[in-house]
Specification:
Layout lengths: L22 H21 L2 H10 L9 H12 L2 E4 L6 H9 L2 E4 L17 H8 L6 H14 L5 H16 L2 E4 L2 E4 L2 H5 L1 H8 L4 E4 L2 H5 L11 E5 L2 H24 L2
Parallel strand pairs: 1-2, 3-6, 5-6
Antiparallel strand pairs: 3-4
Helix pairs in contact: 1-9, 4-6, 6-11
The chain binds fe (ii) ion.
Length: 256
């Protein structure tokens, strides 16, 4: 799907005005990367670290989204697409289904280096985009969007949102006999990542049913997260989630 075919998302697409970033903003980016890289090098999964190299992130300047897309697109079909801010659910799913990752272009200021309530370009690009270079993860994410965009049932979408939360945002993976991180919320936050590494957070094996019934809490640091064994497992789980959602929709139609 091309950008001009997007319906719900079309009003949110913008241009990244790269030349308008200030020297101070490039320095804040540099500081953010400098703070996160040491922990990431030891505790991020292989696929994230490979993706980081592939998309060509630079430490000393903000990422140019078009340049990242030029690296990603031939590999997995994904683009890193500038949007004006937080997207309504339908617009968000529509973009994922089209392999376009909605990416904010604003950057947090120096006085909120550790945390921003709304995602910024550091969370979106440093946190999310390296994983889009991995074919299986990239296919999983597109499939997630293509399933959710067809669903109107809010309760069902909330449950599927937990799958997104506990994988794309806060996912862990067992690798090299250790727990590694791949979710953007853990990658981009020192506090959340340290919480996982230092055992402040219980880590359970990823089970789709349990993930779908585990509510999301955004008001405190995580006390429970889930570790997959492989990205193939995640890809398969999305197919199981699609079957589960279809069953639930069939049941609710019959119940009317
Ligand atoms: Fe995110």
């Amino acid at each position: 799907m091309l950008a001009e075919h997007l319906k719900a998302a079309a009003p949110y697409l913008i241009e990244q005005k790269y030349s308008e970033y200030s020297a101070e903003q490039h320095q804040v980016w540099q500081e953010l990367v400098r703070r996160r890289r040491p922990q990431i090098e030891s505790h991020a999964c292989r696929e994230y670290l490979e993706g980081y190299q592939i998309i060509g992130l630079q430490e000393d300047r903000l990422p140019n989204l078009a340049a990242i897309t030029a690296q990603l697109k031939p590999r997995t079909g994904w683009s890193t697409t500038a949007v004006s801010g937080f997207l309504p659910a339908q617009a968000f799913f529509e973009m994922l289904a089209a392999r376009m990752f909605p990416t904010t272009t604003w950057l947090r200021s120096r006085d909120s280096l550790e945390y921003t309530p709304e995602p910024d370009v550091f969370h979106d690009v440093f946190g999310h985009v390296p994983m889009h270079a991995h074919r299986v993860f990239a296919d999983f994410l597109q499939h997630y969007g293509s399933v959710c965009v067809r669903i109107n049932d809010q309760e069902l979408l909330e449950q599927l949102g937990r799958l997104f939360w506990y994988t794309v945002e806060f996912g862990l993976i067992r690798q090299d006999r250790a727990i590694k991180v791949y979710g953007s919320g853990v990658i981009s936050s020192h506090r959340e990542c340290t919480n996982v590494i230092e055992g402040g957070c219980q880590v359970r094996d990823f089970e789709l049913e349990e993930v779908l019934r585990t509510p999301v809490r955004v008001d405190r640091i995580h006390s429970l997260l889930f570790a997959i064994e492989s990205f193939d497992q995640l890809y398969e789980a999305m197919h199981a989630a699609e079957d589960w959602a279809e069953q639930r929709l069939l049941q609710s139609h019959r119940g009317r």
